[in-house]
Amino acid sequence: YPFFQKSPRRTGEKQTSSLIFFYGLVGAVILIDQFSKFLALEFLSSQGSIAVFPSVLSLTLVKNRGVAFGLFSQAEPILFTVITLSLLALLFVANRPQHQTNLLDRWALSLILGGAIGNWIDRVRFSAVIDFIDFHVWPVFNVADSAITVGVSLYLAGIFLGHSKTRRRAE
Q1: Active site residue 145
Q2: Catalytic: which of 105, 122, 134, 145?
Q3: Helix (H), strand (E) at residue 60
Q4: For the whole prediction, is pTM greater than 0.70?
Q5: Which member of 105, 122, 131, 134 is catalytic?
Q6: 1 closest CA partner among 149, 102, 85
Q7: N or C: which end of the chain has fewer CB within 10 A?
Q8: Mean pLDDT of 121-142
């Protein structure tokens, strides 16, 4: 995990295992995301939409040129630049040596980074993000989007739980 530099809490083997955990999870998210998109492109391109659970879940191939829910799809060059800079900022945050983290933060950042890189790869390869999971009541999404959503949720839960602990100690 990137916060291994000169941390008073992590030394030797703990630093190495944290680094392996972080980048291993990032890599696993990217691999699962890209493989699922490969399958979607292979099998959904000619099929149209496939109902997995009728009226609940379908597999529907969508090429999203915008950000969440297709927003800003007309601003592709600017959007790609902003996303690339955001990804670099996230990598910078992940490698700040002074940042203290816990296991929940490591999971959260790993999922967010893996999902962001997975969608960024799509933008480089296809000039769009490949989406295919369709719950009919929500815009079509993919594995990377799910990883980002879970990561942000974990991070927010960590903030909330951290504030709760601080509040309890103060009382």
Answers
A1: yes
A2: 145
A3: strand 57-64
A4: yes
A5: 131
A6: 102
A7: C
A8: 93
